[in-house]
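Before the break, one more example. Copy the sequence into your notebook; we will annotate it together after we see the structure.
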Amino acid sequence: MDWGCKTCFQVQAFILSDTGDQAEALVLLQRIEKPAPASANTACEVGFVLIWQGKHEEAAAAYHRAYDLTVRFASQRDMRAMALRVMGFVLRELRRFDEAKRACRESLEIEASNSLTLGELTYRSISA
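Here is what the structure looks like once it is written out:
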C-alpha cells in the first residue's frame, strides 16, 4: 500500500472515531494494518479506538505492537514516546501499576518534559 493512501485511510478512520463510530474506524484501521503492517502510527490509532471501546487488554496489545515497531524500524521511532505514554495509561487502567510506571519512565527518557507522561506518573497509584 502506498504510504499516502494509508494516511488518507487513517485520517478517514480518525474522523469516524471522532464522530463516534469507533466500530467502523476499527474495521478501517485493521484493513490498513494488513497491507501496511509496519506502521506504528496505525497501531497507536487502533489502540486509541480500543480504549474508547473499553477493550483495555486489546488496546495494551496494540500499543505494545506499536512500541515493537518503533524498535524494529527506524522510520517509526518518532512514535515511540507516544506509544509508551499511552501504554502507561492503559496499563494503569488495567491496574498493572509497575508496568505502567516502567512505560511512562521509558517515555520520559525520550521526552523528558512531556506533561501528559508526568501527569500519568503522578495520577492515582502510579506515583513516581
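Residues 3-122 form a domain with the Serine Threonine Protein Phosphatase 5, Tetratricopeptide repeat fold (CATH 1.25.40.10). The chain has a mean pLDDT of 87. Try to locate both features in your own notes.
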